[in-house]
Amino acid sequence: MSTDLTMDDLLAIESIKRIRTLGSLYLDAGRLDELVELYHPDAVCDFGPYGSWTDRAEFAANFAAAEEPFYASGYFSNLHVVANHVVELTGPGDATGMVYLLDFVTGDQIRAGGNPLYWLGVYEETYRRDATGWKILRQNLNFIWPQRMLGDGFLERQAAPAHH
């Protein structure tokens, strides 16, 4: 990974980070049509227990179904905090990224004992720029806590070799 970035590189990286932050806002606010617009027409999402999504035309309904128990307590009762976003530009209109998820809930879905932390996860992503800007092309969510559900090859791609 190069650490020497041009101004154009920084603008591209910030544009990618912006769509990811908007993604959390739109999801938590129930603005699902706006959320879907952040995804490339050929987007593929693998969200572990929430399924593998390959048809962007179904994304709004899929997000609505996944969020229904949280929306029952009102919008913004589920907060998808994305942090530690690392973006690597891989070509003129392509990039990869990794971003941490801290998912907090309130209302009816809060965990036993009142713990608002619902999920910890790590997204692995690819992005593509089209005529309208950067879009999410692939999104894989690896769940870290409370159940560990890692996508195929996640540790091999992201972590140090295992110590024996």
Explain this structure.
It is a single chain. Helices cover 28% and strands 38% of the residues. It is an alpha+beta fold and 164 residues long. The protein has a 6-stranded mixed beta sheet with strand order 2-1-6-5-4-3, covered by helices on one side. The protein is globular and about 45 Å long. The model has no long low-confidence stretch (mean pLDDT 94).
Number of helices: 4
Radius of gyration: 16 Å
Could you spell the SSE succession in H and E letters? HHEEHEEEEH
Count of distinct strands: 6
* Global outline: globular
Name its key features:
about 160 residues, alpha+beta, six-stranded mixed beta sheet, globular
What layout of secondary structure does this protein have?
Blueprint: H1 7-29, H2 32-36, E1 39-46, E2 52-53, H3 59-71, E3 78-91, E4 94-105, E5 117-130, E6 133-145, H4 154-158
Parallel strand pairs: 1-6
Antiparallel strand pairs: 1-2, 3-4, 4-5, 5-6
Short note summarizing the structure:
With 164 residues, this protein is of the alpha+beta class. It contains 4 helices and 6 strands. The protein has helices spanning 7-29, 32-36, 59-71, 154-158, and strands at residues 39-46, 52-53, 78-91, 94-105, 117-130, 133-145.
